[in-house]
Amino acid sequence: MNYYLHNDPNLPVAWSPWFAHEYLAYFSVQAIDSMMFLPPVPVKPNPGYGDKLWPVGPKHIDVYKERYQECRQLDPLWSFDYKKRNGDFALEAPSEKTIEPWKVLVIYSTEPDLYLDHDLILQKNQKVTGGSHGWRHMQFKLFGTTYGIAPQSFRVHKDLAELAFENSDDYWGWRYLSRCGHYLSDLGHPFHVKAVPVSFLMKKIVSKHEIFKIVSAMHQSYEVYVERRFREAFEPFKQALLQGAREGRGAREDIQTRLTHYIKQAKKRHNPIFYYLFDTFGQELLSAFDQMDRNSQLDLSIQTNRCSADAARVIFKETNLSKLDFLDRITGEILFDVGRMLGMLFAGYSSKS
């Protein structure tokens, strides 16, 4: 397999530019031959299985990318808004359309980063995670208190996928599974399972605004770095995911049993990445996030996304390229683990017809 998602002729340009979660799903499914040969399934409207128990954000709309019209050509290296793609898509399920399951897993893997989890009142402490989006995509402990419910987000969407399959709605089985894979990937992301090194926090605790900005900047900057590497067709990242997924597809271990170790490994990698970004790029990188406002009503993910282009200019400045080796190595280790978990998850459904 010689493609890199962004040059795969089986995927229309209308669905791009591509983002990190789509690359994670793409290379993971490519490692599972039986998944790649599953027949297309008919597109169906959302059955709404989880509407009462798991409400979606008030701005969320189910978009159906199976019917598209190419309308623009965005620069893939400088596109940071998940909502902006090269195509416009149907707002109702096109009844005559079918789609291969592996494509569903890829193209809907960014859905949880749109409005699905935004603008909800879920818990009184959700401001610590930057809003309801962070609450559903993260889980970390701070001074003995647990913030976020990412493992629950994973389990809920796995249950919804199984419910859909049981009711012969294969399309939404795959689409719920795509969302499930997103939360599973987040649990392998060091900044989603640990917020800040404790020693660093104690030094900065007198300034809540400063620590809020630094933590947010390091988190988003790492995501900008990973996404850019994928878009540059960075071979070690591709290989790490493929190797991890191949190992995961044959694993006999239960994915829920493996989850604790997976999260623990991600936590161990947080401090080295945090300090490397902070010490290497310093004030120049932090300045890219000057427009953030701790008191804003916007979800934190929306605010930090608006700073992504400035962060990318700092990290990938010509004079800084030689400083990325450490990040490349440790991220390869992370991606192997993520690929392994996604391989386990997807392979468990690869016999679906």
Describe the structure.
The structure is a single chain. The strands form three sheets. This protein has a two-stranded antiparallel sheet. A two-stranded antiparallel ribbon has the order 2-3. The longest helix has 24 residues. Helix content is 51%, strand content 6%. With 353 residues, the protein is mostly helical.
Key traits:
two-stranded antiparallel ribbon; two-stranded antiparallel sheet; 353 residues; 6 strands; mainly alpha; single chain; globular
Furnish the topology, listing elements before pairings.
Blueprint: H1 20-30, H2 33-36, E1 41-42, E2 64-70, E3 87-90, E4 98-99, H3 101-107, H4 132-137, E5 140-142, E6 145-147, H5 150-166, H6 170-186, H7 190-193, H8 198-204, H9 208-231, H10 235-249, H11 255-268, H12 270-287, H13 300-305, H14 308-315, H15 325-347
Antiparallel strand pairs: 1-4, 2-3, 5-6
Helix pairs in contact: 1-3, 1-10, 1-15, 3-6, 5-6, 6-15, 9-12, 9-14, 10-15, 11-15, 12-14
